[in-house]
């Protein structure tokens, strides 16, 4: 339920070209701090949109590969160790921060992000359609919640990641994510404390 098909960019669109640039840079072995910088002449909102969708795909895949180890029994609370507990709020079904198990939280999170990135009013894909004024605030909320997936995976399931041989991939994904959110100040530094 938490594993989703990858969101794709339409070939021939500006976002597809930006996505190809980002992927080529990542595969070239360049410094990740440099890779996340906005390419000259590109729109900041397009760059953020491409990365939010890409991080959603990657983090969803990471969680999906180890979700069999994250169950109601092993993770009855969505947390990052003893010090950090994450509660779900979506302003529709959960109007107040609500304690959920990690699998429930992950399911709600992935559904919520998928709904947002597929919403043309928030993530427009047509040329000439502007991003909404609150676009970067929405992305901040998405990225903050995706960061919590890293926190949970690293603190509670990293042994499973190592046993699967996925440590290098998860670490690279995390570094890319971290440099990106720091480059554009998209996640409050207090949220970053667990890692």
UniProtKB/TrEMBL annotation:
Coiled-coil positions: none
SMART domains in the cross-refs: Mob1_phocein
InterPro entries the record matches: MOB_kinase_act_fam, MOB_kinase_act_sf
Keywords: Kinase, Metal-binding, Transferase, Zinc
Membrane-spanning intervals of the chain: none
Residues engaged in binding Zn(2+): 70, 75, 152, 157
The organism's place on the tree of life at top rank: Eukaryota
Family annotation (SUPFAM superfamilies): Mob1/phocein (SSF101152)
Pfam assignment, any one: Mob1_phocein
PANTHER family: MPS ONE BINDER KINASE ACTIVATOR-LIKE MOB (PTHR22599)
Name of the protein in its database record: MOB kinase activator 3C
Higher taxonomy: Eukaryota, Metazoa, Chordata, Craniata, Vertebrata
């Amino acid at each position: 339920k938490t594993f989703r098909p990858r969101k794709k960019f339409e070939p021939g669109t500006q976002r597809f070209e930006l996505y190809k640039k980002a992927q080529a840079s990542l595969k070239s072995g360049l410094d990740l701090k440099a890779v996340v910088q906005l390419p000259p002449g590109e729109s900041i909102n397009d760059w953020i949109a491409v990365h939010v969708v890409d991080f959603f795909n990657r983090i969803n895949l990471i969680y999906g590969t180890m979700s069999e180890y994250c169950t109601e029994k092993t993770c009855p609370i969505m947390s990052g160790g003893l010090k950090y507990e994450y509660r779900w709020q979506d302003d529709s079904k959960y109007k107040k921060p609500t304690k959920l198990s990690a699998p429930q939280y992950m399911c709600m999170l992935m559904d919520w992000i998928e709904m947002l990135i597929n919403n043309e009013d928030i993530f427009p894909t047509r040329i000439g359609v502007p991003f909404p004024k609150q676009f970067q605030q929405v992305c901040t909320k998405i990225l903050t919640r995706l960061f919590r997936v890293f926190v949970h995976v690293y603190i509670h399931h990293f042994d499973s990641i190592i046993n699967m041989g996925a440590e290098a991939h998860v670490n690279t994904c995390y570094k890319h994510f971290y440099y990106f959110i720091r480059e554009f100040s998209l996640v409050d530094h207090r949220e970053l404390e667990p890692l």
